[in-house]
Amino acid sequence: MRKSFSFILFGLLLFIILTSCRPPELEGAYVDYNAKRMDNALELAKQATEKYPDNPEAPYLLGQIYGEKGMFKEMMESFDKSLNISTQYE
Question: Percent of the chain having pLDDT more than 90?
Fold first, then answer.
């Protein structure tokens, strides 16, 4: 019984960890964004947006980067794209 419980708990923890990870392009974009490397962050965020079109976080971050670069039209387009996928980043 205890062995079964441990196995189920391990499986649940593994599932939570694996499903909560960001795609590598998106994680890299956040690292570059936080380090103020906006050109690198922009390229990675664009890649993430193209590679993961159903992920609302990618166009949201892309919008933030565009805003930092003063590209406000692109910023609004990216935020709109994120909201069309999900209202998570409203």
Answer: 71
CA distance 35 to 7: 40
pLDDT band at 52 (very low <50, low <70, confident <90, very high): very high
pTM: 0.77
CATH topology for 23-85? Answer: 1.25.40
Annotated domain spans of the chain: 23-85
* Among 38, 44, 47, 40, CA closest to 65: 38
Burial class (CB in 10 A: 0-12, 13-18, 19+), 5: exposed
Give the residue carrying structure tokens 């690198």: 40
pLDDT number for residue 9: 66
In the chain, the N- to C-terminal Cα span, in Å, equals 45
